[in-house]
Automatic annotation (TrEMBL):
Name listed for the protein in its UniProt record: Clarin-1
Cellular location(s): Membrane
Cellular component GO terms held in the UniProt record: membrane
First-listed, main subcellular location of the protein, grouped into a coarse class: membrane
UniProt cross-references to PROSITE patterns, sorted A to Z: PROKAR_LIPOPROTEIN (PS51257)
TM helices/strands, residue ranges: 97-123, 135-155, 189-209
Keywords: Membrane, Transmembrane, Transmembrane helix
GO BP terms: equilibrioception; sensory perception of sound
Name of the gene this protein is made from: CLRN1
């Protein structure tokens, strides 16, 4: 492939990697990871609410990695409540999983920026044969893509397996019991998915630019080298 086309491909990959870093950084600070509704089970049972009457007992909840908001409704109107994970909810959430999600988000941002630098270096500089060449480009893209996948797996397990929304809904509730009525992953979660796919796409762009996969050697070169060695 001509050098000019390689530069264009590396520039595109670098821009995509930088956009992923910015997107992940923006996603960390929002409370748009999970949106859902919560049902005041105690209040609904007291009045035996059914059908449209249940709407008076269905509140809302949304949260991210650091903070969130819930609106509880027990038949007397909505009452908003702001909360933060640190240090308020540390005793009721799976803290190790939650901290791991934040850690992998940070690693994803770092390696996305590192990948951006190496893509631009390969586009406008003279790449070395080690980490500045194809091996490094594949490495940074693979690490960033893996971190994105781990973030989604860990956060999904925290929400679905450990019933995070229900634990938050019942935080500091003495006489009322809340149950998750519906929940869905919001924009910030899907940004991580898009970033993972982009880093996988970058690996394909590297291959499309003409770089072989790392540590791969053609059989022909090996046989020719062996024949030359036998001559001496």
């Amino acid at each position: 492939m001509p050098a000019q086309q390689k530069k264009i491909i590396f520039c595109i990959a670098g821009v995509l990697s930088f956009a992923c870093a910015l997107g992940t950084a923006a996603a960390i600070g929002t409370q748009l990871w999970v949106k859902g509704t919560i049902l005041c089970k105690t209040g609904a049972l007291l009045v035996n609410a059914t059908g449209q009457e249940l709407e008076k007992f269905i509140g809302k909840i949304q949260y991210g990695l650091f903070h969130g908001e819930r609106v509880r409704q027990c038949g007397l109107g909505g009452r908003p409540f702001q909360f933060s994970f640190f240090p308020d909810l540390l005793k009721i959430i799976p803290a190790s999983i939650h901290v791991s999600v934040i850690l992998f988000c940070t690693v994803l941002i770092i390696f996305a920026l590192v990948g951006t630098g190496f893509f631009m270096f390969n586009a406008f500089g003279s790449p070395y044969e080690t980490l500045h060449g194809p091996v490094g480009l594949y490495l940074w893209s693979f690490i960033a893509c893996s971190c994105g996948c781990l973030i989604m797996i860990l956060f999904s397990s925290e929400v679905k397996i450990h019933h995070l929304s229900e634990k938050i809904a019942n935080f500091k509730e003495g006489s009322f019991t809340f149950k998750t009525h519906s929940e869905q992953f919001a924009n910030s979660f899907w940004i991580i998915l898009v970033c993972s796919l982009v880093h996988f796409l970058n690996a394909l762009l590297i291959r499309f630019a003409g770089f072989e996969f790392p540590f791969s050697k053609s059989k022909d070169s090996g046989t020719i080298t062996g024949a030359v060695d036998l001559m001496y």
